[in-house]
Write a structure and sequence with these properties.
Layout (H helix, E strand, L loop, with lengths): L16 H11 L7 H11 L6 H13 L3 E6 L2 E6 L7 E5 L5 E4 L2 H8 L14 E4 L2 H19 L1
Parallel strand pairs: 3-5
Antiparallel strand pairs: 1-2, 3-4
């Protein structure tokens, strides 16, 4: 999806168009992001200063335009672009909060082919909660170390 550059003469929008355009450019490559990450990315990598309030206001506009989807992963809100995306699912680590995306055609077909009573499925989201491999390994090491201490 091509994103047209804003002109300097367009006024009257809640979020300035240049800020909105810059945010769009960052969304091209990001998967899931939160406002603080986007704020830091824009400030550090692009030297583009914009207030957090402008980011929140712009995200609301992008959600209302159905260009961005808001996800609630545990205690954090994260966003992702909703255009030009393949169906995917999310894995959320309950220990560190890491969110990863994955695709599984068998799972997708099972969900899409499920007969629902008086309901026409248009789209869906799937969140799977558990431990990422890094946290799982750390927990096993910690448990093993605790067991060794008890034996001594």
């Amino acid at each position: 999806m091509a994103i047209p550059a804003p002109s300097d003469t367009e006024e009257g929008k809640k979020a300035p168009l240049k800020e909105m355009y810059a945010i769009f450019l960052h969304l091209r490559d990001e998967l899931n992001f939160d406002i603080d990450t986007l704020y830091s990315l824009m400030a550090d990598q692009e030297n583009f200063r914009v207030s957090r309030a402008t980011l929140y206001n712009t995200i609301i506009l992008l959600i209302n335009a159905r260009l961005v989807i808001k996800h609630q992963f545990g205690n954090s809100s994260q966003y992702e672009k909703s255009y030009n995306r393949d169906t995917h699912h999310h894995q959320i680590c309950t220990q560190c909060g890491k969110v990863t995306e994955f695709q599984n055609e068998e799972l997708q077909h099972a969900i899409e082919n499920t007969k629902l009573s008086r309901f026409n499925l248009t789209h869906y989201s799937l969140y799977m909660y558990g431990l990422c491999s890094k946290c799982d390994r750390a927990n096993k090491r910690k448990k093993k170390n605790n067991n060794h201490k008890k034996e001594k």
